[in-house]
Amino acid sequence: MVQGRHEEGQQVPKDLQRLLAIAWIGIVLLVGACILLAVRWGMNGQNGRALSAVGTPMETLPLGAGATLFLLPTPTAMETPLSRPAEGYATPSVEPTVVPLADRSFGYGIEAQALVNPQATLDHVRQLGLGWVKVSLRWSEIEAEAGRPDWGALDAFFAEAATRNLRVLVSVSAAPAWARSVTAEGLEGPPDDPRTFAHFVAQLVQRYRGALHAVEIWEEMNQEQHWYAPGGLSAASYMELLLSAVQAVRTVDPGIIVISGGLNPTGVDDGVMAIDDFRYLQELIALGLLDYVDCVGVHLKGYNLPPDVPYDAASSSAAAHFQAPFENPHHSWSFYSTLRGYNDMIVAVRRHTPLCVTAFGWASAGGIRSEVKAGMEFALDNSPEEQARYITQAFQLMRDWRFVWLAFLFNLDFAFKADGDLGDAAALYSILAPDGSPRPAYRAVQEMPKLP
Q1: Is the pTM of this model over 0.90?
Q2: Do residues 254 and 287 lie in contact, with contact meaning Cβ atoms separated by under 8 Å?
Q3: More confident site: 212 or 58
Q4: For strand 132-138 and strand 107-111, is the pairing parallel, antiparallel, or unpaired?
Q5: Do strands 404-409 and 355-360 pair parallel, antiparallel, or not at all (unpaired)?
């Protein structure tokens, strides 16, 4: 036998057993320590590379001069010391039952001034039988001072929405003055640096992760009123803003539905006051919009045409207060033609990206006032009963077409909570009267079947 080996069945001395056991434990601890050090070294290397990339272009996009996409800091690092819940409310952290992106059933929603008395407002949404609520959020009102956002009203709203199992769409626009080099009275616009907007959106999504289900990136950016910027109206500039925001959202919560800003079908195409929504959308599609968003946003005014009437099939009416759809036929007057036209553009490039109608409705002055501002005369042509019929018919059409994913009625309560100009414009679309009582459209939506 070779020296040191034991014959079969021979017992190893106890002292040697203890020595071998101690040696084995030492080897295991040494290997474990090496593995731990290797993992920590690798993680630190990754974090160092990520931090060094902040503000460094990751990918040059075909959006014209200076259009680049930037990697943002991790959202948790961007939370500010003032980001505290409102008194009496905890920041919601409820995970959705179904990841929004995984649920492609038709969504019935409504826009409301839900930051004002959220309990009663959201009770109305539930009573209407709707599963979605939209809030239009002005960044300038939340973060009037750079780095000091006030989340109080939103904390209260999201807490109430979560308890009612409501899904939430937030539309974010209107950069604060500190983020803009060019401003003008009454004209909203984007920030000079898209990363500041992405920073804000990242904080929003991080704070309400699990309670926020969809984000609309800006709205009506084809109109000077909402996109007053040094370079003027520009699909390329909007894409730069969009891509930074999309990256921020995907980093924080990849399950959220990202919606492009709803365009305004104004019928104007002078390139200064407005760009025609069809032309603007075609430019966005050419710039790769459909590669980055989950849904294409749409805003629609019903004017005084029913939802199933194409713009070129409208029957003129001598009794109508608003004659423009008959004297100057254009797709922008027609709910039917605008939606079908958007979908046709998407299908033409062999894509199937759905539409999210983030604002639609019909104005009716009945029961609110007998006179309206110039340009709003169509509100005199729609009776409250017609308003109710058009709204429910529009919901049915969008659901049956199958290329619309989410639809948000404009609006629940702007007449009831009217302030200043809202009494002359947005209030006419409201389905609650100025005294808070239901208009015919409220009852119609409440009784309408909500088929998935």
Answers
A1: no
A2: no
A3: 212
A4: parallel
A5: parallel
As beta bridge partners, residue 216 has 171, 259
Residue 283 token pair: 């430019």
Q: For the chain, what is the HEC assignment?
A: CCCCCCCCCCCCCHHHHHHHHHHHHHHHHHHHHHHHHHHHHHHHHHHHHHHHCCCCEEEECCCCCCCEEECCCCHHHHCCCCCCCCCCCCCCCCCCCCCHHHCCCCEEEEECCCCCCHHHHHHHHHHCCCCEEEEEEEHHHHCCCCCCCCCHHHHHHHHHHHHCCCEEEEEEECCCHHHCCCCECCECCCCCCHHHHHHHHHHHHHHCECCECEEEEEECCCECCCCCCCCCCCHHHHHHHHHHHHHHHHHHCCCCEEEEEEECCCCCCCCCCECCHHHHHHHHHHCCHHHCCCEEEEECCCCCCCCCCCHHHCCCCCCCCCCHHHHCCCHHHCHHHHHHHHHHHHHHCCCCCCEEEEEECCCCCCCCCCCCCCCCCHHHHCCHHHHHHHHHHHHHHHHHHCCEEEEEECCCCCCCCCCHHHHCCHHHHCCECCCCCECHHHHHHHHCCCCC
AA letter at 420: G
- What is the residue whose two structure tokens read 């009852």? 443
The SS3 call for residue 400 is: helix
Is the torsion defined by CA of 114, 112, 229, 248 positive or negative? positive
Closest listed residue to residue 244, CA positions, set 224, 222, 218 = 218
Segment (H or E) for 235: helix 235-252
Compute and round to an integer the Cα radius of gyration of the chain: 28
Is the pLDDT at 319 greater than 50? The verdict is yes
- Size of the chain in residues: 452
- Output the pLDDT for position 99: 77
**Alpha-carbon distance 242 to 259, whole Å?**
10
Query: Is the pLDDT assigned to residue 259 strictly greater than 70?
Result: yes
Q: Is 302 left (phi over 0), alpha (psi -120 to 50) or beta?
A: alpha
> Does the pLDDT of residue 55 top 50, yes or no?
no
The 3-state DSSP class for residue 1 equals coil
End-to-end Cα spacing for the chain: 82
What pLDDT score was predicted for residue 4? 35
Instruction: State how beta strands 57-60 and 68-70 pair.
Output: antiparallel
* CB-CB contact of 238 with 288 (8 Å): no
